[in-house]
């Protein structure tokens, strides 16, 4: 499944760790606090547990939105949007 991870985390260390976990899970950074990529159910659950251990549930906000490919393709991208091919399993590596 394709997953969006969006967060607003106050503590710098916790925010850095959440970004690190998202990257380790294979997600692509879309914006500073927004990641997108393909995860299986186990990877999503693991990421959820890692994030849960980092955040302060009294003040921080984290959203994990699963979606399928057709829903991703129907997204509207404006401005300097990301390359949908990077998260659609069509391209697994990008060489420049």
Give structural notes.
With 96 residues, the chain is an alpha+beta fold. The protein has three helices and four strands. It has helices spanning 12-24, 41-54, 69-73, and strands spanning 2-8, 28-31, 34-38, 61-67. The chain has a four-stranded antiparallel β-sheet with strand order 2-3-1-4. Strand 2 and strand 3 form a beta hairpin. Helix 1 (12-24) packs antiparallel against helix 2. The radius of gyration is 13 Å and the shape is globular. It starts with a strand and ends in a 23-residue tail after the last helix. The model has no long low-confidence stretch (mean pLDDT 88).
Helix content: 25-40%
- Element string (H = helix, E = strand): EHEEHEH
Number of DSSP helical runs: 3
Quickly give the structural class: alpha+beta
């Amino acid at each position: 499944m394709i997953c969006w991870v969006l967060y607003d985390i106050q503590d710098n260390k916790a925010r850095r760790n959440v970004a690190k976990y998202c990257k380790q899970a294979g997600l692509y950074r879309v914006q500073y606090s927004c990641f997108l990529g393909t995860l299986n159910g186990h990877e999503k659950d693991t990421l959820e547990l890692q994030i849960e251990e980092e955040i302060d549930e009294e003040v921080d906000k984290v959203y994990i939105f699963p979606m399928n490919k057709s829903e991703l393709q129907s997204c509207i991208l404006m401005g300097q949007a990301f390359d949908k091919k990077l998260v659609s399993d069509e391209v697994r590596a990008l060489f420049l």
